[in-house]
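Issue 218. Parser rejects a valid record. Input:
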Amino acid sequence: MTSHEILSLYESVAQNTDKMLAAAKAQNWEELTRLETVSAEYIQILRNAEKLEPLSGTDLKKKIASIKKILADDREIRNLVEPWMAKLSTMLNSNGQAQKLSQAYGQNKRS
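Output the parser choked on:
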């Protein structure tokens, strides 16, 4: 894989994280999940490609700029997703507690 192709992949990941951030802001969790899968595929290709041809000079600077953007978007996505995940966890735990109470009440009622 050429250095141009590698940079193109980094730029694709950066563009995809833009879309991921937009999905997170819109609370479109299904789209965010789909886009995360796309990013994972790009990243796997990059892992294999960089073993073949390391970058240098201007190409390395472009790669670093893309990585910084990806990391900044990732940080913002996490800031948006973590509260939602905490809320979801609370709801699931609450539901589990309700089921346990229902089961316990049902068992006590039959006794």
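Fixed in the parser; the record now loads. The chain has a mean pLDDT of 85.
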